[in-house]
């Protein structure tokens, strides 16, 4: 797929971090970008910066996702690109014992459900609604009708202590990638997933510098945190390379996460 001003894109979680870097990279190629996010201040500021459109969207709500796509398409036309970056985290052990009084605590299931709803079901919800719109478009000269990039995590394969829900949500994205790619292959829509390692995103913004340094030291090479622009670079490769389909790719400096 050749990127230019004739192409529209939607990025969930697009107001910051990996999504924002991808939005800037696509806009730099002339793509018309719509940002789905809950942070209106960041979303509106970035949309103004790149000449895009901000859409207030909670990906757990079908009504809000529908409204977001309607607003994006009214502004830019039917998108050919969807990049799913919206996600949340959280850490609880499956069961744990209080160190002071020995009380046994179970994983709070409402938290498990919240993470699955945002990360996994939210991703699939946006895929189905975007792909349905893509089917209304003719294929481009190179054969593509659309391209979808999802965001999983190395936790899908190397989940650490306390990450049961997060791991399950991200492993679900990895697990459905090939199946969804096969579902959409006859319609010329490609689907790929990136598994980022430890990236310097807003999730780490509150971490102390020594904590960030310790995390960076775990990376074999290069010994640093990943930069959102590096995620964006891979996302654009998945979008522009028409033979890239049905793949789950780690982007992690060769890290393999320890149990904790």
Automatic annotation (TrEMBL):
InterPro entries to which the protein is assigned, alphabetical: NAD(P)-bd_dom_sf, Sc_DH/Rdtase_CS, SDR_fam
GO molecular function: oxidoreductase activity
Keyword Oxidoreductase: yes
Gene3D superfamilies assigned to the protein according to its UniProt record, in alphabetical order: NAD(P)-binding Rossmann-like Domain
Keyword set includes Transferase: no
Source species, domain of life: Bacteria
Family to which this protein belongs: Belongs to the short-chain dehydrogenases/reductases (SDR) family.
Name used for this protein in its record: SDR family oxidoreductase
Higher taxonomy: Bacteria, Pseudomonadati, Pseudomonadota, Alphaproteobacteria, Sphingomonadales
């Amino acid at each position: 797929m050749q990127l230019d001003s004739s192409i529209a894109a939607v990025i969930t979680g697009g107001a910051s971090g990996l999504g924002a870097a991808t939005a800037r990279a696509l806009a730099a190629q002339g793509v018309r970008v719509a940002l789905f996010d809950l942070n209106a201040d960041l979303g509106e500021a970035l949309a103004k910066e790149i000449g895009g459109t901000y859409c207030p969207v909670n990906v757990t709500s079908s009504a809000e996702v529908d409204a977001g796509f309607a607003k994006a398409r009214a502004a830019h036309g039917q998108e050919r690109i969807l990049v799913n970056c919206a996600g949340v985290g959280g850490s609880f052990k499956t069961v744990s014992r209080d160190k002071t009084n020995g009380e046994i605590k179970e994983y709070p299931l409402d938290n498990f459900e919240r993470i699955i709803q945002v990360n996994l079901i939210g991703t699939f919800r946006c895929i189905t609604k975007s792909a349905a719109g893509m089917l209304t478009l003719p294929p481009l000269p190179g054969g593509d009708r659309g391209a979808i990039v999802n965001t999983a995590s190395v936790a899908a394969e190397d989940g650490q202590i306390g990450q049961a829900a997060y791991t399950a949500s991200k492993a679900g994205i990895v697990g459905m990638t090939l199946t969804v790619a096969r579902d959409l292959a006859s319609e010329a829509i490609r689907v790929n997933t990136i598994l980022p390692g430890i990236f310097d995103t807003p999730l780490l913004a509150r971490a102390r510098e020594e904590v960030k340094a310790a995390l960076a030291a775990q990376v074999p090479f290069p010994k640093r945190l990943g930069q959102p622009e590096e995620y964006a670079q891979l996302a654009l490769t998945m979008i522009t390379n028409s033979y890239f389909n049905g793949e789950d790719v780690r982007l992690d400096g060769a890290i393999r996460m320890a149990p904790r």
